């Protein structure tokens, strides 16, 4: 971890003002502390000499009040700055991942760890460590300069001992960096494993292997606990070491002042100011050492976040020829474009593999229904994802307006039926009911306790697989996109429900360009065009007219 990474201020512009404000408050606190040393000395001298303490006492009280106010301000600004920066980074991360194609998105467990704990761990870095760093750069030189004017021998001792603190801190910091990296990896592994287990819990329970996971989660948690304790041990050790060093250094100043006082070679006032000022040269550096450990996680996470923000900017994505753009702008532009998909020579190879899944696929789909068939694993889903702009082909050209993709594993949030239906559109009550009627789900939703306002669980929990499939189909009918891509939309439905859904798909295709992957012969028969894929290539395509002519 570098002491300060200017990338932060570039990555999170929201951090600039709070960091500057915290730095100013830190410097004012330092100046007030130095002034307090003089005021306190004046009070002590007044008492010793039997003079009135009213004036110096008032100064001292005023300075204490100022320091309390500055301390309160610093805490408030810190809390505000931390939450502002972490929220801004979280927003930027999500926006970058949404812009990026599927191959550049991180693994979900890593994404969860980074967007949740990662961005939160940047808070102490911004709110505590950076202001401490600025204070450490300003206050010690100020204290030493004042000390040099007041009592140069004390200043000399401080100048000779103060560099030991950053040297020690840097030595300890090197091992902290490795420990923090290990801790961060352990945390990612823990959240990833936990997510996998939660996802696969029904299957694990079904096969009677759920209890085995307790052991695995326990060992992953233990690894995280060990790495956390290792980091904490280092933090306590380094604080103790810096504390000891600073105390010995201050003691050296105090002892020499004491000896000179007893010899009468220094005035009481000067000696007192020197003793009170000496700690001010050390504490800001000690504070940096203490905050460094709390901030180390944040610095590690910040480096990771910056990597994701840099790769998610999309410059290469646009250059790859798929013409993907910001989703909202694309949707707006798409409404003005004809509902036609034209793909030519699309070639796509998954990262880490060598054999292309799509090998020069060409396809033209206009308004109406185009059904895509082909054996399992031949690349149909991949093709839909390329058409939707989620994956970027390595070769070929694609021209399409913004598309609404209904995947095989539909995405449903833990929210009301209404918000799951209207996701991203301004569909009202009537439109929602009409969409539900189109897919034959109106009776089911009407029978729910709160109708459209009934909450469904995460991932559609509480609905059958067929109901989920129809709900996302209803959502597609509400979408404003002129191109709708459906991946096996009726795979989970009984013949009756499939019939209703096919009718809804045909209605949808009357107004838009619908490309559906399906193995249902009745949907293929009803299609305006049929494209067959095999081993990543289009082996056959025909239109309804071709089929009618053949018959
Ligand atoms: N993330 C991935 N990384 C590497 N290979 C993948 C990935 N996803 C899919 N594949 C491979 O790409 C090939 C095509 O997969 P795809 O899901 O597109 O096939 P499909 O035709 O839709 O199959 P199905 O009809 O069974 O849904 C498969 O051989 C699959 O193993």
UniProtKB/TrEMBL annotation:
Residues 341-551 form the ABC transporter domain. Residues 20-297 form the ABC transmembrane type-1 domain. The keyword Cytoplasm does not apply. GO terms for molecular function: ABC-type transporter activity; ATP binding; ATP hydrolysis activity. It is a multi-pass membrane protein. GO terms for cellular component: plasma membrane. It is found in: Cell membrane. The keyword Membrane applies. Its main location: membrane. One of its GO terms (biological process) is cysteine transport. PROSITE patterns: ABC_TM1F (PS50929), ABC_TRANSPORTER_1 (PS00211), ABC_TRANSPORTER_2 (PS50893). Keywords: ATP-binding, Membrane, Nucleotide-binding, Transmembrane, Transmembrane helix. CDD domains: ABC_6TM_AarD_CydD, ABCC_MRP_Like. Pfam families: ABC_membrane, ABC_tran. The chain crosses the membrane at residues 20-48, 129-149, 155-174, 234-259. PANTHER family: ATP-BINDING CASSETTE SUB-FAMILY B, COMPONENT LINKED WITH THE ASSEMBLY OF CYTOCHROME' TRANSPORT TRANSMEMBRANE ATP-BINDING PROTEIN ABC TRANSPORTER CYDD-RELATED. This is ATP-binding cassette, subfamily C, CydD/ATP-binding cassette, subfamily C, CydCD. It comes from Pedococcus cremeus.
